[in-house]
Design brief:
Bound molecules: dinuclear copper ion
Helix content: 25-40%
Radius of gyration: 28 Å
Number of helices: 6
Strand content: 15-25%
Oligomer: single chain
């Protein structure tokens, strides 16, 4: 019965409604019997208690029926679980990395993005890992969820069967920016996907009008912790960053510096070196090329 189910959302929903139907039937049955007993065996009708002899048939009935029900639920769930854990051999592999607090996706050809772009009707395998703490990848539209564990690779697969964009969340509390760890799955037609996949550069495809540095600070997840509008988030704001004076902690000692290019580059490459006073030393170091670094610094200079 499950082989005919085209996609997991269908099979998960079917199991859910199946179990729900059993629950509602039992609830209705138990309630009816209870109401009947309240009337039939009330003290008014039965002033003298009577001894009740056991009923073998009834005992067998209410042992066998629930046992069968539980076995059926197990079997349906097991088939769904097998389907969920068996990746079709023609699946396209996408590496997913969770970090505080963003998701990044890397494709077989080395292309990277912050939005999960996938082609229509091609099974997608997600190989999931974490750069820092526990996260959990959740795509409600496909009914799939899996932890992102540091030092370990976990996986999921799904079949994008309708063009559109769907939410992708982090569903494991991972710190102050947890709620900002949101992105999208974009299901594209095969043609649109090919075009995006083969295009030069690392653009997300979602924000083609932005300068490269602006796109990078989104893609690398910088803006999950650093605001652009002057407000303090988990980290200091990017607004007016250059030539601002900051008190930083260097190896446990306070000192005042003026933010310049050199400071920004050091802070990206070695985030723990000089942490601005009042902020927790939690920024992870991340893989970044010199070109990307250049683009980010150039862009930060423009945020007055
Ligand atoms: Cu990552 Cu919550």
């Amino acid at each position: 019965m499950i082989n005919g189910w085209q996609h997991l959302s269908g099979s998960v929903d079917s199991i859910f409604f199946f179990i729900m139907a059993i629950c509602i039937t039992l609830l209705a049955g138990v309630t009816c019997v209870m109401l009947y007993f309240v009337v039939r065996y009330s003290r008014k009708r039965n002033p003298h208690p009577e001894d009740v002899a056991d009923n073998l048939l009834l005992e067998i009935f209410w042992t066998v029926v629930p046992t069968l029900l539980v076995l059926v639920i197990f079997w349906v769930g097991w088939k769904g679980f097998q389907y969920m854990r068996t990746v079709p051999p023609d699946a396209m592999l996408v590496k997913v990395t969770g970090r505080m607090w963003s998701w990044s996706f890397e494709y077989e050809n080395g292309k990277q993005s912050s939005v999960l772009n996938v082609p229509l009707q091609r099974p997608i395998k997600l190989a999931i890992s974490s750069a820092d703490v526990l996260h959990s990848l959740f795509i409600p539209a496909y009914r799939i969820k899996e932890d992102a564990v540091p030092g370990r690779e976990t996986y999921l697969w799904f079949l994008p069967d309708e063009i559109g964009t769907y939410d992708l969340f982090c569903t494991e509390y991972c710190g102050a920016g947890h709620s900002a760890m949101i992105t999208k799955v974009a299901v594209l037609s095969r043609k649109d996907f090919e075009q995006w996949y083969k295009a030069e550069g690392k653009s997300t495809g979602s924000t083609p009008h932005l300068p490269e540095g602006a796109e990078l600070i989104q893609e690398k997840g910088c803006i999950a912790c650093h605001s652009l509008d002057g407000s303090a988030k988990v980290g200091p704001t990017f607004k007016g960053l250059l030539v601002r004076n900051e008190t930083v902690m260097t190896a446990g000692r306070e000192r005042t510096i003026t933010v310049d290019e050199e400071y920004i580059i050091r802070s990206i490459k070695d985030p723990a070196a000089d942490v601005v006073k009042g902020f927790p030393p939690i920024m992870p170091a991340m893989p970044i090329t010199d070109e990307e670094l250049r683009a980010i610094v150039d862009h930060l200079k423009t945020l007055k």
